[in-house]
Write a structure and sequence with these properties.
- The complex is a heterotrimer of chains A (314), B (304) and C (373).
- With 314 residues, chain A is mainly alpha-helical.
- Chain A folds into two domains: 72 residues, no CATH class; 227 residues, Orthogonal Bundle (MetI-like fold).
- Helix content of chain A is 76%, strand content 0%.
- In chain A, helix 1 runs antiparallel to helix 12, helix 6 crosses helix 8 and helix 10 packs antiparallel against helix 12.
- Chain A is globular, with a radius of gyration of 24 Å.
- The N terminus of chain B is likely disordered.
- Chain B has a single domain, classed as MetI-like (MetI-like fold).
- The radius of gyration of chain B is 25 Å and the shape is elongated.
- Chain B is mainly alpha-helical and 304 residues long.
- In chain C, 33% of the residues lie in helices and 20% in strands.
- The radius of gyration of chain C is 22 Å and the shape is globular.
- In chain C, strand 11 and strand 12 form a beta hairpin.
- In chain C, the strands form two sheets. In chain C, strands 6-7-8-3-9-10-12-11 form an eight-stranded mixed β-sheet, sandwiched between helices. In chain C, strands 2-1-4-5 form a four-stranded antiparallel β-sheet, covered by helices on one side.
- Chain C is built from 14 helices and twelve strands.
- By secondary structure, chain C is α/β, with parallel strands linked by helices.
- The chains are: A mainly alpha (314), B mainly alpha (304), C alpha/beta (373).
Chain lengths: 314, 304, 373
């Protein structure tokens, strides 16, 4: 099992390496003089040179790459051109917001998705199934940020049940923390819930048709054990896959949701740095996010080994 | 053999054993299978109507989409003359919606084309050649896939600047690895077929083999993937335009109309409805059509 | 927990069948209508005895066996008539919780595909112990011990260690043995075996059958073997019921069936056995196909494929199962009437009209000219 984990980590390293290359080379792809673009067209020559040095453009690219990698490995993610804060600090400030949002969204979408999918799969082709499947299909088609807009207008502005904007850290109380997160997490998790529901239903149906389910029934096991025990682990694998993919996709979705709800999370940070052409932040951001996604993928892979014994030997 | 009793179902047995008359090609059979489902037909009709609306915008739209009428701003839906109401500058929302459909329908096509131009040839090559090329291309694809596509698109926009074309280029690049993977996977399985060996023996060049022989057989999963991509790119365009990084004013897309609705949410909350419905409907039609194609492909697979 | 004392079949005095299926009719819902797939199936199995249910695919044999434990999908199938008596109760009248006690506890079942019939995510020992705990009030440890015990019984080496393995690390034959172990773990009185050896290599088949016979002797268990392979039947079963197109067409003790088949279909099956074909001759099969349940011919269902069928007799009335003097049951009208003898069934090679009654054929052939060959 440990070897399995190590192998997976080893496999992720080349990917991470290429990502750093991509992130690094972003600056060099800018048409024209990158320093001017970053400093702004009206900047003084002095400022432009300052930016050029900050971004390491005065060094040969290869050397700068290793300087940058060295910095990353020692925890120095660079400094923002605009604000002067370290990128690490800015990311650390924004992280709790996005993580809270993602956590709530993933939690509710997992629970709702699995429940809906299981229910639909167990009652295949019944009216329950048809209704739930229609709901799922619709849920997949609706843009999450549109749902966010509707929720904000209805529940925050019209009915004033929840705050429309902002974020309160959990340290200041679970209640306020949650109330700020309810609407955005609800919107953000819609697509994920629908995907999980669809995959759970398919997995359920697939497993229920398997011979070993018939064997379990032939052994005299009650239905709830047959369904609960014998289907779960087998149906879990595709669901976990979808969950992992969705967790990564949520990061993209949160960019827009954070705008709708004015939350100072990673998404807002990314957007701001792009509009302001704050390249060091963008670079650091890309690497951090990818690392995050790779970790999620690793966890998903490890869970496969738990669910499917055959995988443990590979 | 002869039997002394007339066998009522012998003839049906004999008929069943005869080869099927070859009147349809696999392509035609595929299309007829797709068209057999009422849902698929409905989706095609919806998409067809959307295309007609987009193309016929100059004739269909009741008003000039940019004609402002500040006295009549934020008119409610169904108020006189404006079925969907007016926006913050008094412009008719229905007309803007109709004109915006041009952008919102073209944009995904651009993005998917970009993704295809990058992903399909590389996928074919990687699957066919294997070896180091495949490994490197695979790792690069993994890296791109690890990056959430919206983030990657944002990064590319950061380099080249906002605008519809740039945005769709970015989205296309971000989506190409997924296409690469699907094509590579199918190519791997097709590669082992003997007709590939046959054409290689005859002396076909690699590109000719790839496009003439491999690609047609990779069509099915590719088609499913493309329909999924169209709806994803539509969503991406809407999102990017909402963020102000896609279409730039005065051009409107459904996404930018949602942004305007959001900016004016206190005065005109109803504005968020029409563009959202338009986007949802289109994505729904594309998704369900994609499912229908997948089922038709699966049915074909199941038969052989 | 101890193994029950082995009960020898002959010591049980009762001549009542352990399992008695009477006039069983099963319908399936397909293409908008209920169609009968099993008609008037009947069979009797003595305690400790062994019966083979033989037929091609589409004969209804598997459906019949699944219906005993009510394993057929509930919304597209139903038993429209008949009774399944087991150990004094009609299984069809039992409630679901009563059936659960029967399943695995009194009747065990093994299936054709051992590869897919075991849950891949649980160890073999787990799955057997689960069965034991379901039917006996024992602790986890005791259930596990029983699982190991029963794995040894079926001949799996290093059973204690292997019980902790997952199904995918077992070979096909071992997996089937494990399934058998699971099915007998609660000492059922009856074992239903649905094509247990079909998916196995020929060499493994023999050993699995031998195991079944050994377990029968040791545990006094009755076995209902469902198969399409007469070769398997010969060495294993006492009695045979041959099914065709959803109904039994011949019921006989195994030696009688092989020596004196009383139905053209049985004869055809025998004739097509590779073992019965002299070397150098082509293997033959019964020409034609089993009719679909919704396209049954009038009269005898086998008539269209039968070399001995007689127009005006075999294609008119649907024949009943008739008891012959020697105790065999047959659904062949002509055999029942004595017009046809078992010897003739066996002698005539497949695919040629029986040459015994030229006068009736002559006029028929004139009509037949132009159709078929």
């Amino acid at each position: 099992m440990l070897i399995f984990i190590l192998k997976r980590i080893l496999a992720a390293i080349p990917v991470l390496f290429i990502v750093t290359l991509i992130a690094f080379s972003l600056i060099y792809m800018i048409p024209g003089d990158a320093a001017i673009v970053a400093a702004g067209e009206n900047a003084s020559q002095e400022r432009i040179e300052q930016v050029r040095e900050q971004m390491g453009l005065n060094r040969p690219a290869i050397v700068q790459y290793f300087v940058w990698i060295g910095d990353l490995l020692t925890g120095n993610l660079g400094v923002s051109l605009i604000s002067g804060h370290t990128n690490a600090e800015m990311i650390a400030n924004a992280l709790p917001v996005t993580v809270s949002l993602a956590l709530i969204a993933l939690t509710w979408s997992l629970i709702a998705g699995v429940l809906i999918g299981t229910f639909a799969g167990l009652n295949r082709d019944s009216w329950i199934d048809r209704t739930l499947t229609a709901l799922t299909t619709f849920g997949l088609a609706v843009p999450t940020f549109w749902i966010g807009l509707i929720l904000v207008v209805t529940f925050a502005l019209q009915f004033r049940m929840f705050p429309a904007t902002g974020f309160t850290p959990i340290t200041e109380g679970v209640g306020p923390w949650l109330s700020h997160l309810v609407l955005p997490a609800l919107a953000l998790g819609t697509t994920t819930a629908a995907e999980i529901a669809r995959q759970t239903r398919a997995g359920m149906i697939d497993v229920l048709e398997q011979d070993y389910i018939r064997t379990a029934t032939a052994k005299g096991l009650p239905r709830w054990i047959v369904v609960g025990k014998h289907t779960t682990k087998n149906a879990a694998i595709p669901v976990v896959t979808v969950f992992g993919l969705q967790a990564a996709a949520l990061i993209g979705g949160s960019v827009i949701i954070e705008q709708v709800f004015a939350m100072p999370g990673l998404g807002s940070l990314a957007l701001r740095s792009i509009i302001e052409r704050d390249f060091p932040v963008i670079q650091a951001f890309v690497v951090v996010v990818t690392l995050f996604v790779l970790v999620i993928n690793l966890l998903v892979d490890i869970s496969y080994a738990y669910f499917n014994p055959k995988v443990r030997q590979s | 053999m002869t039997s002394v009793v007339t066998p009522p179902n012998k003839t049906s047995v004999m008929a069943a054993l005869e080869p099927e008359p070859k009147r349809t090609t696999p392509t035609r059979a595929f299309f007829s299978r797709v068209l057999r489902s009422k849902v698929n037909i409905a989706c095609l009709v919806v998409l067809g109507i959307l295309i007609v609306v987009a193309v016929g915008a100059p004739w269909i739209a009741p008003y000039d989409p940019n004609a402002q009428d500040l006295m009549n701003a934020f008119a409610a839906p169904f108020s006189d003359g404006h079925v969907l109401g007016t926006d913050q500058l008094g412009r008719d929302i229905l007309s803007r919606l109709i004109w915006a459909s041009q952008v919102s329908l073209i944009a995904p096509v651009i993005a998917v084309s970009v993704a295809s131009v990058i992903g399909i040839p590389l996928g074919l090559l990687a699957g066919y050649l294997g070896g180091r090329f495949d490994w490197i291309a695979g790792r690069i694809a993994d890296a791109f896939i690890a990056l959430p596509s919206l983030i990657l698109a944002l990064a590319i926009i950061a380099i080249f600047g906002p605008g519809l074309v740039n945005a769709m280029l970015a989205v296309g690049i971000a989506m190409s690895p997924a296409l690469f993977r699907v094509v590579r996977g199918s190519t791997l399985s097709v590669r082992e077929e003997t007709y590939i060996d046959a054409s290689r023996i005859v002396g076909g060049s690699t590109w000719r083999i790839l496009f003439a022989h491999v690609l047609p057989n990779v069509r099915s999963p590719l088609l499913v993937m493309l329909s999924i991509m169209l709806s994803l790119c539509l969503l991406a365009e809407a999102g990017l335009s909402f963020l102000g990084l896609g279409v730039q004013p005065p051009t409107a897309s459904w996404g930018s109309m949602l942004r305007a609705a959001f900016d004016n949410r206190f005065q005109g909350p109803m504005m968020i409805i029409p563009p959202g419905i338009a986007i949802t409907m289109t994505i729904l039609a594309l998704n369900m059509l994609g499912d229908g194609i997948r089922d038709a492909v699966g049915a074909q697979r199941g038969r052989s | 927990m101890t193994i029950t004392d082995p009960v020898i079949a002959s010591e049980r005095g009762s001549t009542d069948g352990l399992l008695s299926i009477r006039d069983l009719n099963i319908e399936f819902f397909a293409r908008g209508a209920w169609t009968r797939v099993v008609s008037d199936a009947s069979l009797t199995l003595k305690p400790g005895g062994s019966l083979a249910l033989v037929g091609e695919s589409g004969s209804g044999k598997t459906v019949t066996s699944l219906s005993i434990l009510q394993l057929l999908p509930k919304n597209i199938s139903r038993v429209s008539k008949g009774a399944i008596d087991f150990d004094g109760r009609n299984l069809l009248t039992l409630s679901e919780s009563q059936m659960r006690n029967v399943r695995g506890g009194e009747i065990g079942m093994i299936f054709q595909e051992p590869m897919t019939s075991l849950n891949p995510v649980f160890t073999v020992g787990d799955q057997i112990a689960e069965t034991v705990r379901q039917h006996r009030k024992v602790s986890r440890k005791e259930a596990w011990a029983r699982a190991v015990e029963v794995l040894e019984l079926v001949g799996i080496p290093a059973a204690a260690r292997r019980a902790k393995d997952y199904p995918h690390s077992f070979s096909g034959g071992m997996r089937q043995r494990a399934m058998i172990a699971m099915a007998i773990s609660c000492e059922p009185k009856l074992l239903l075996a649905d094509e247990p050896t079909t998916a196995l290599d020929v060499t493994v088949q023999a050993s699995v059958l031998q195991l079944l016979r050994q377990l029968q002797d040791e545990l006094g268990m009755a076995v209902l073997l469902v198969t399409h392979d007469l070769g398997v039947v010969a060495d294993f079963c006492d009695d045979v019921t041959v099914m065709y197109a959803g109904e039994p067409v011949e019921v006989a003790p195994v030696d009688d069936l092989f020596g004196r088949p009383s139905h053209p279909y049985s004869a055809g099956l025998l004739r097509s056995l590779p073992q019965r074909t002299p070397p150098g001759e082509e293997l033959t099969a019964i020409p034609g196909m089993v009719p679909q349940p919704d396209q049954l011919p009038p009269g005898c269902r086998f008539a269209p494929r039968c070399d001995f069928a007689l127009a005006g007799v075999c294609d008119v009335e649907h024949p009943e199962l008739v008891k012959l003097e020697n105790g065999q049951l047959t659904r062949c009208i002509r055999i029942a009437r004595g017009e046809l003898s078992s010897g003739e069934l066996v002698a005539a090679p497949l695919g040629t009209p029986a040459a015994h009654d030229l006068s009736t054929i002559a006029t028929d052939v004139a009509e037949q000219n132009g159709s078929d060959r």
